[in-house]
Amino acid sequence: AQKITQTQPGMFVQEKEAVTLDCTYDTSDQSYGLFWYKQPSSGEMIFLIYQGSYDEQNATEGRYSLNFQKARKSANLVISASQLGDSAMYFCAAGGSSNTGKLIFGQGTTLQVKP
Amino acid sequence: NAGVTQTPKFRILKIGQSMTLQCTQDMNHNYMYWYRQDPGMGLKLIYYSVGAGITDKGEVPNGYNVSRSTTEDFPLRLELAAPSQTSVYFCASKGFRGKGFFGQGTRLTVV
């Protein structure tokens, strides 16, 4: 069965510093995607970054990068130069690319950026 | 370019009532999903579909039903509503690769 683990319920970071949010996954699928979403207090789900399991390069989207270590089954999100607007809940998800299409989310990490 | 549209945005149900949450996407995505999110928690997969006519149970399917008669629509049916179904419900869709698109969510309260 698929399982996503985010071990940091809450994180603090100083404005303008970098922060890493951890995510490990467990899947038996050969092909899968790895995703990070941001959920601000307003509640909407905002897509941040995607990595395919066969992509050799780590994905980057502006200040977001995904540190993909396939052998360790880890997909950590790195946010560089944190901004106050980055304060939100962050969710890691995996799946959605195999024949099954199943897409499972982790329990989330709350990030607070301090001025 | 509507993306994923969920209706209604808010609903209050009485215990034992039934309702259908509607979800429509206009991106011709094969994969569609229903999640529920309890306060302060992550998203739990209720049901998902990999194409018209194909649906499968997720992590928490009890008390819900779905159908997928077209590529665009993926309604979620709640039968005999219970207080435990009070939650925020999200519908999402995606293509084979790349990001998933989410609807704005439905806040459901069962009293």
Note down, in words, how this protein is organized.
- The complex is a heterodimer of chains A (115) and B (111).
- Chain A is mainly β and 115 residues long.
- Chain A has strands at residues 3-5, 10-14, 19-21, 24-26, 33-39, 46-52, 60-61, 64-69, 74-79, 88-95, 103-105, 109-114.
- In chain A, strand 5 (33-39) and strand 6 form a beta hairpin.
- Chain A is globular.
- Chain B is mainly β and 111 residues long.
- Chain B has no helices and 11 strands.
- In chain B, the strands form 2 sheets. In chain B, strands 2, 4, 5, 6, 9, 10 and 11 form a 7-stranded mixed sheet that branches. In chain B, strands 1-3-8-7 form a 4-stranded antiparallel sheet, with no helix packed on it.
- In chain B, a hairpin with a 5-residue loop joins strand 9 (87-94) and strand 10.
- Chain B is globular.
- Classes of the chains: A mainly beta (115), B mainly beta (111).
- The A-B interface holds A 6, 33, 35, 37, 43-45, 47, 50, 52, 91, 93, 96-97, 99-108 and B 30-31, 33, 35, 41-45, 48-50, 56, 58-59, 88, 90, 92, 94, 96-102, 104-105.
- Overall shape of chain A: globular
Provide a count of the helices of chain A.
Answer: 0
- Sheet/helix structural class of chain A: mainly beta
Radius of gyration of chain A: 14 Å
Brief descriptors of the model:
heterodimer, A: mainly beta, 6-stranded mixed sheet, B: 111 residues, mainly beta, 4-stranded antiparallel sheet
Summarize the structure.
The complex is a heterodimer of chains A (115) and B (111). With 115 residues, chain A is mainly beta.
Q: Helix and strand layout, with pairings?
A:
The complex is a heterodimer of chains A (115) and B (111).
Chain A: E1 3-5, E2 10-14, E3 19-21, E4 24-26, E5 33-39, E6 46-52, E7 60-61, E8 64-69, E9 74-79, E10 88-95, E11 103-105, E12 109-114
Parallel strand pairs in A: 2-12
Antiparallel strand pairs in A: 1-4, 3-9, 5-6, 5-10, 7-8, 8-9, 10-11, 10-12
Chain B: E1 4-7, E2 10-13, E3 19-25, E4 31-37, E5 43-51, E6 54-57, E7 64-66, E8 76-78, E9 87-94, E10 100-102, E11 106-110
Parallel strand pairs in B: 2-11
Antiparallel strand pairs in B: 1-3, 3-8, 4-5, 4-9, 5-6, 7-8, 9-10, 9-11
